[in-house]
Design goal:
The chain is built from twelve helices and 13 strands. It is an alpha/beta fold. It is a multi-pass membrane protein.
Length: 353
């Protein structure tokens, strides 16, 4: 199976080798957008400022301009000339005649006229330059991407996983969502997440999401067989990342473990247990929901053992300790094995949010 996987990976289109401007339709980096009314107001203000600036420049050189009436140029005449000139109306009743006035028209008035036109057609220019801006953002994003979390699948499970991460203090800039549904990716983008449009079962898509440099990969695919394939590909691409996968049925659990998942959550069994508990003790289910929701109430957290706690028992700490992580083992609190805490231990405890 591993040999077939490597052969399939070798045949994948290498998105990572494409130039950044060719990834605009694949990768989307969220940008802050102002309201349309604010954007229009800003453009109007800039346009008026350019006209006024041009009028003042003409007024300072009014002796170099000639009016067909032969009258001296007033401030109103200068503003009038600037308006018809910068808007390219050009009636021709006022024109620069001196060399200095013509030089100023070439070096200053003409660039201002061009800037004015850019402001007027700002919407079109914005559309044309959006691709360039996104390409620049993608370039910066790919250069800085390190120790982030890749979430494959942004359905109900994926969204809940992202909510839990962000509720636990992980910034949106350190989460990358991979999915094939544009509508789903749009929702993720609105939350401020970087999105990659593609299948998480393809190695080039995971590489584009920065999986080789990610600290964790969450597999939240809608189908169990897809979850196995994504996990297999993710482990091949990111051998050092922590992979957490979710499946509906427990029969896929051993396949995910064999594929390289560090932790597997079986959603159907977990839901079934909660349903059974809720029939007798519904308050217990409510407390479990509270512990799994980091934004309010209580939450299960993990921390290092402090130097003053080494050698002591978890039962004597002010925190309510549930378990001790020692190496690769999870030891429940209250057992003789954890009566004396060691320097490298980590504590799983209940934290009040």
């Amino acid at each position: 199976m591993a040999g077939k996987l490597r052969s399939r990976i070798a045949l994948d289109d290498e998105l990572t080798d494409r130039p950044d401007y060719d990834l605009v339709n694949v990768v989307r980096v969220p940008v802050r957008r102002s309201s349309p009314s604010r954007s229009i107001t800003l453009r109007v203000v800039v346009a008026v400022a350019l006209v006024v600036l041009s009028g003042l420049i003409v007024y300072l050189q009014r002796d170099g301009y000639q009016d067909i009436s032969g009258k001296p140029m007033t401030l109103l005449d200068c503003m009038y000339h600037a308006t018809v000139s910068i808007t390219t109306t050009g009636f021709g009743d006022i024109s620069p005649v001196s060399e200095s006035a013509r030089l100023v028209n070439i070096l200053i008035i003409t660039p201002l006229r061009m800037a004015f036109l850019v402001v007027l057609v700002g919407t079109t220019i914005e559309v044309l330059t959006e691709r360039s801006r996104q390409a620049a953002k993608i370039q910066r994003w790919r250069r800085k991407l390190r120790n982030h979390t890749v979430v494959v699948g942004y359905g109900t499970k994926g969204r809940s996983a992202v909510d839990a991460l962000m509720g636990d203090g992980v910034p949106a800039s350190e989460i990358v969502v991979v999915d094939t549904d544009p509508a789903v990716l749009e929702k993720a983008s609105h939350v401020g997440l970087v999105t990659v449009n593609g299948s998480g079962a393809k190695s080039d898509v995971l590489r584009l999401a920065g999986a080789p440099r990610a600290s964790a990969i969450i597999v939240a695919a809608n189908r169990d067989d897809t979850a196995v394939l994504v996990t297999l590909t993710a482990r091949e691409v990111a051998p050092k990342a922590k992979i957490v996968a979710s499946v509906r049925e427990s029969e896929y659990m051993h396949l995910l473990k064999q594929s390289g998942a560090d932790s597997v959550v079986v959603s159907s069994e977990t839901t079934g247990r909660l349903l059974g508990v809720a029939t007798a003790t519904p308050a217990v289910v409510e407390m479990i929901e509270d512990l799994l929701t980091p934004e309010a109430g209580f939450a299960i957290a993990e921390r290092d053992v402090e130097p003053t706690e080494v050698g002591g028992s978890p039962r004597h700490l002010s925190d309510i300790v549930l378990a001790v992580v020692r190496g690769d083992r999870l030891l429940r609190a209250g057992t003789a094995e954890v009566d004396a805490l060691e320097p490298a231990d980590r504590l799983l405890y209940i934290r009040k949010v």
